[in-house]
Amino acid sequence: MKKVLTLTLAAALATTALADHVFDINVSKKGAPIQNTMYGIFFEDINYAADGGLYAEMVKNRSFEFPQALMGWNSFGNVEVRNDGPFDKNPHYVRLGYAGHAHKHTGLENTGFFGISVKEGATYRFSVWARCPQGGTSVLNVQLVDPDSMGETQEVASCNVTIEGTQWKKYTGQIKVRKSQQDLLLRIFLRNVRGQRLAVTDIEHVSLFPTDTWKGRENGMRKDLAQALADLKPGVFRFPGGCIVEGTDLQTRYQWKNSVGPVENRPLNENRWHYTFGHRLYPDYFQSYGLGFFEYFQLCEDFGCEALPVISCGLACQFQNSIRDEKKVHVAVEDLDPYIQDALDLIEFANGDTTTTWGKLRAEMGHPAPFNMHYLGVGNEQWDEKDNPAFTVRLKRFMEVLSEKHPEIKYIGTTGPDSEGWKFDLLQPKMKELGVDLYDEHFYRNEEWFLGKAKDRDGNPINCGALRYDSYDRKGPKVFAGEYACHGKGKKWNHFETSLYEAAFMTGFERNADIVHMCTYAPLFAHVKGWQWRPDMIWYDNTEMFKTVSYYVQQLYGLYKGSNVLQCSMEKKPIAGQDGQDGLFATACWDEKEKAVILKVANVSNSEQSIDLKWSGKSKDIKAGYSSIKVITLSSPRMDDENSLDNPRKIMPKAEYLNKDTQEISIPAKSFQVYVFKR
Ligand code: AHR
């Protein structure tokens, strides 16, 4: 601190202009309310975000439904895959028979998602559906094994499960682990019992979960990852994506009805991210739908945030399917009814009373009370062609039916995959005409774009950076910045610099809170051994995780969201890295609950900047004079540094309290700061 922050109005007026800059925070009027939905999360099953990630199931291909039925499994002895099992949508199962000799074994080993990892002292719940189809009894020996062990035994921990009877039943066992280990296998084999005839045994839906899941749920989520989401204090939760909503073809689009009901009978879906990028193929990436729409709504409730489901609009991924093949690959407009019905049924599943078909299913799944869903997105990255209104003609059909039957829901359209350009220009005005409540905008852009300096191919400035929304139509739909992240030019990792630019850019969301109602960074999750796309917000292996700097940026915005925008300017201009503003970006808001003024400042320049704060205007509620000043700083000595599994806390926000008589603040070079001036 070079000089002192002026806190009282009188003192502020007396401040001499010795600082590099003066921020004028006008407290006379509480500006636009900042929506509770403002900062949220976007979930898509990309980078092993669901199976192998948040969804705590440890067995891959648990129902033997992958196209190669034993993918993820090693089999030995007398193993047969059959397809007349107890679950009609997942008919495959495995028959284990006598191996031909008392000293031979029949069984399977599951390789998990990039191996199976366990934690010291943890207990794991094994479960399996099984029967002895020809009668008798068998014992399944269930082991966690370390195949590379140099110890006397490969077994790390185990349990026995006795199977009896010719009817399918669910069996469970507990496996307690003493020490943390990685790269294990789950080995299941028929135990030979001396003097006993070994009964043929059928097994299906083989599952292993830690007992310590988020909220202790059986079909649960990984506790550490769910907690990381809760700690963001999200206001809205978009699900299930992303391109996954659309599918590479319509057969593989996300169909929410397949993701509810008993987990054993949720049919497998291909995961498009298994092959979307040929340079990063993950042939074993499928969607079990174990984390389905019920679990999603439950998470929204846990986090106290709004649900924002997105459904297919009848167009398969437009990047992968030309509209010229409309009849072959997309749903004809006149055949859209089942898709619209899916939307209506989803509303019923979330909100309908328990006498309705879908409300009843929700109750049977354990949640009779409605989930109170208020938002619905139709389509993901769709667009109109210049000669074919492919998306809007379909969206119109949805809107006609949905807005009539459910006027209480807010509907979300899209401005397409680009933040500018012909697709955007064509689509954005049509969203207003169609009367959607919000439109979803996507921008994975470079440093210049985030700093507001990007130009188009002809060298003309484009509407980007923190001023983007200052010029938006105030009478149109509200903005949902549904996918965004700063992608460094040639630097596709989560380094500090790009996160800093995200923080700078986001000041524009807050300043324009009258029209920006939601924003969600994307993608959310990535497994270090299974990613297709980066940067991402949270990374993990099978047991550990780390939060990126982008996570902390999102968290600071979420925790210090405030309730109303306050006008904050520098020489009467928005502070948005404009000429003469020395790389400063800032926004201020009032927090009604905390009775605090919150100032968020990013300094993207190479020099520290001293700021005099001028508190202008008079206010009944927002009085000058504060009892404490807290400042939280996010900075890094090196712009290319990032957090990692080895060093998860390398770059983290640091909080300190300033002397309440401080009269001037200084913003360190290349830093993001949040100031909380509390009365
Ligand atoms: O976030 C990854 C992908 O980026 C999403 O699936 C898609 O909507 C966008 O192109």
Characterise the protein shown here.
This protein has 679 residues and is α/β, with parallel strands linked by helices. Among the domains are: 9-31 and 564-678, Immunoglobulin-like (Sandwich); 73-212, Sandwich (Jelly Rolls), CATH 2.60.120.260; 222-408, Alpha-Beta Barrel (TIM Barrel). Helix content is 16%, strand content 29%. The chain has eleven helices and 34 strands. Strands 1, 26, 27, 28, 29, 30, 31, 32, 33 and 34 form a ten-stranded mixed β-sheet that branches. β20 (438-445), α9 (447-450) and β21 (478-486) form a beta-alpha-beta unit. The radius of gyration is 28 Å and the shape is globular. It starts with 8 loop residues before the first helix and ends with a strand. The chain binds alpha-L-arabinofuranose. Alpha-L-arabinofuranose (AHR) binds at residues 44, 46, 241-243, 380-381, 417, 442, 483, 522-523, 533.
Topology overview:
Blueprint: H1 9-14, E1 21-26, E2 39-42, E3 73-76, E4 78-82, E5 93-97, E6 107-110, E7 116-118, E8 123-131, E9 137-145, E10 155-164, E11 169-176, E12 181-190, E13 201-210, H2 223-230, E14 236-239, E15 269-270, E16 286-287, H3 293-303, E17 306-311, H4 326-329, H5 337-351, H6 357-364, E18 375-378, H7 390-405, E19 410-414, H8 422-434, E20 438-445, H9 447-450, E21 478-486, H10 496-511, E22 516-521, E23 525-527, E24 538-540, E25 545-547, H11 549-559, E26 564-570, E27 573-574, E28 584-591, E29 596-603, E30 609-616, E31 628-635, E32 654-658, E33 664-667, E34 671-678
Parallel strand pairs: 1-30, 2-14, 2-22, 14-17, 17-18, 18-19, 19-20, 20-21, 21-22, 23-24
Antiparallel strand pairs: 1-26, 3-6, 4-5, 5-13, 6-12, 7-12, 8-11, 8-13, 9-10, 9-12, 15-16, 24-25, 26-27, 26-28, 28-29, 29-34, 30-33, 31-32, 31-34
Helix pairs in contact: 5-6, 7-8, 10-11
The structure holds alpha-L-arabinofuranose.
